Sequence to fold (742 residues):
Amino acid sequence: MSDSLHWLVGQLAHLGLNYAFLLDAYASGKLLDGALTTLGLCLFSIVGSLLVGALLAAAVTSGQRWLAWPARAFIEVTRNTPTLVQLYCAFLVLNMLINQSLGSANPMIPFAWVVLVISLHKGAFHAEALRAGIEAVPAVTLEAASSLAFSRRQQLLQVQLPLAVRFALPALVNNLIDLVKMTAVASAIAVNDITYASIMIWTQGDNVIELMLLILAFFGLLSFAVNCIGRALEARLRMPGYGH
Amino acid sequence: MPSEPLIQLRDVHLAFGDNPVLRGIDLDVQAGQAVSIIGPSGSGKSTILRCMTGLLRPQRGNIRIGDTAVEQLQGEAGLIALRKQVGFVFQQYNLFPHLSVLDNLLIAPTKVLGRPRQAVRDEALALLDKVRLGHKATAFPGELSGGQQQRVAIARALAMRPKLILFDEVTSALDPEMVGEVLAVIRELTEEGMTCVLVTHEMRFAEEISDQVYFTEHGRIVEHGSAEQVFRAPTHARTQAFLQHALGEGSQRPSRPAPDVLTNLGRYSLSV
Amino acid sequence: MAIEHFATLWQWSPTLGAGLLQNIQISVGAIGLGTLLGLLVGILLLSPLRPLRGVARLWVQVFRNAPWLVLIYFTSYVFPFDVQIAGTWVAFPDWLKVTVGLALPASANVAEIFRGAVASIPATQWEAARSLAFSRGQIFTSIILPQCLRRMLPPWMNLYAVVTMGTALASLVGVHDLIDSAQIAANTVNRSGFTVLVYFSVLALFFFYCYPIARLTQRLERRYAF
Fold:
């Protein structure tokens, strides 16, 4: 393992890229730590955002004004403001207020704030995709279900939702790829993700370009993985003869 | 036929907003009969069928199917009970695109009637054979031609073992060469004694298979009687004019409606 | 108590306003530069020459899949403090680096929007134009492009709104923008009530700038829907 790493660093040196820091235990440990943190941020936020998205979509399409309206407002505000500002409003403002009332009993760590904010943010985007999917289910298809004596609930579970998820899936996958990239914002509140770890390392050395390429490759890999999983899911749920 | 009719409509009125569509429809269908409703586009034919299965609710009048007073049904349970007995076949087939052909047939009997999957499966395969699509059981609706989809839709309705089936312009969306295969299936059903109500533009077919024919115009029944009487010796001037036009030019078909467009919903997902 | 905080906010409003202008300046610069670059890359994407297409595709792939924040770090830390143009040293300020950092992903997205718009024009348009004896170039400039621009407008406006929200990241590399101003204000005043007010004001300012763009985008989309 370390032999091949030595070899790789040597090869890259020929290209004028100094990756010697990878051989340093401190730097490589910090990077690995950062990579794992980013991975954790992605996994938790993906699950969280999908949950939030489903709940918001349910609220928006519920037909209940008192549910739909606040959900709609939340989605619009979330979509039209920067994630960083949302993160500050959560971590610098809400966290401060919680600290003031609970003191050291505050259970929220920066990592959790990032997961929460990204989940809510991307959840709003998922909700839009799901809502569009639900609305794209042709009324006549539901009429067919109803003429086959399906109850309203069966129509929803057997026909409307399966179709809506299929329609929304490409948009959901795009959202998740964007979510992966978005986790870099965690570095703004000193969560030790891969971006933050890299900043820590390059402030001590002169290897910004090398680290940048490394981060870009890492995020590229993560996006690629999400994309592959998404495509596999799309292939599984494919409706032969429709679209694409 | 002396017995009580299976379907009975009395003075049914329905309006969409200010626009009256049905203005007093009286209609009887005996069990085992095939009844066709003919008439110009927009005369309310499809609306009559939708009222029978409770998809639309008339503002006035009575609809009785078997022992059920359809217009009095309150809530979902009653409608579900009604629809278990009444099959409906749509102009646009309306198969479930995410399910295979076989699953399209199985879903309602298993989920709605709660019948065991294995028994329903055997029945469904037999039904697919009957509509000459036994080899397409694993295909998806999107992979079939319009005529094939419509035959699957008929089999899907039959899988519920309905007492009667309503056919709503089931050949209007089809290319001409596929009309025959669908009509052949319906003809077989009528010969087996299934109670069928058809809204159709296929005049010669209606004449051939129907026991009774109703001619509607502007939301009223203008004339009704046996197929032979309505087609060969119509008494009303409007019927005569319509039939002359419809039969003279071959079976006239309305323009083909656009298929459901299932768009890709690529919304902007970008955010920072 | 609340009134007092609003009064303090009023006192700080010139600072915050200057910060907001900085954000808007960066957003306009980034979308301008990004659009120019993006159209160029977009045309290369459609080029008949394979190597050119490959370079363009690589550009789009890299800059669409990179986190914007990382690109901003990249331009901020890698670009020099000043550059020599025609013998004189010209300063390369932080805000300009951020502008370039945002223009890179913007260009990749513009290229994709452009490619998508061209692809959405039905092939029959090309056939019809060809049958009228138009040349390839003529078809492109007088038939395809006008239709494309109309279709590009809504996603392009959406991109502008996203770029504007992206300018919030400028504060992380030391640009004195709205968020930076808000942080300074919150730390200087050091009252929790004011901190709440100032951060949510920043949120509101971004919202009132971006939301109308989003609404207009939706309206245009609906109008151009076909």
Summary: The two ends of chain A are 44 Å apart (CA to CA).
